[in-house]
Amino acid sequence: MINKVTIKHLTKLFDHLTHYNKMAPFPVYDTDYVKDVENRIKEMKEKKENYDELPVVACKYCKSLHIVTDDVENDICFRCGSVNELQNFENIHEYNKFVNGKDTK
User: Is the pTM of this model over 0.85?
Assistant: First the structure.
């Protein structure tokens, strides 16, 4: 199945976002952003494009894929808050090798 790894990461992110939004008295994460992640997962499952082979960017410090671009083109990590501190990877498999220290193909 193509897109297996990328969809797995997005699903894990979506679960994290919805869990903490449900646990807090007010949503911790922007509800529009959570809905966008959910829609992106649905869209990726329907398409035939192989997203697993596209380049990936992660936070340089916490290695999170939870990166959002603001109105003035700054890349912000939602996990640790760093700004414009990204590390580029060739694809999701290279990212997984870096984070886990093993091959995940």
Answer: no
